[in-house]
Amino acid sequence: xxxxxxxxxxxxxxxxxxxxxxxxxxxxxxxxxxxxxxxxxxxxxxxxxxxxxxxxxxxxxxxxxxxxxxxxxxxxxxxxxxxxxxxxxxxxxxxxxxxxxxxxxxxxxxxxxxxxxxxxxxxxxxxxxxxxxxxxxxxxxxxxxxxxxxxxxxxxxxxxxxxxxxxxxxxxxxxxxx
Length: 178
Known about the structure:
By secondary structure, the chain is mainly α. It has helices at residues 2-22, 25-58, 69-74, 82-90, 93-107, 111-118, 124-142, 148-177. It has one domain (2-177). Helix 1 (2-22) packs antiparallel against helix 8 (148-177) and helix 2 packs antiparallel against helix 7 (124-142).
């Protein structure tokens, strides 16, 4: 996370210098508000998702239906299971419908289980980022500082920065494993 923050600050500094040299005050303000709000939203998303995954791993709540990854990809809905084909020929329609209903009820999640997974959506840093995004946009628009092209570019740059940092880190990890 420190690498991501350092790289974001470095890219923001370079972006500020470019906007200062090329543009005017509206470009500078639009670019900074867009960059900071996008950075806060993305960092909030990353940190909340990380904490949710770590919490679920600590509780050992990892669902496993006994199928390997390849069979999950090739047959995600278990349509081609050979065991079910033999049994389904012998069953009546009502029995098949009852079994499917029971299976769907077993897989249904309660309200509390859904709220446990949605905690990542309500992280404070992410909400502050969205608040900064909305209020910053209104501020820029009301004071006639909004330069929409620069604003949209500034919203896009943190995403590219974080993706590139994470991909480089992943490549280093793969190289270290070899």
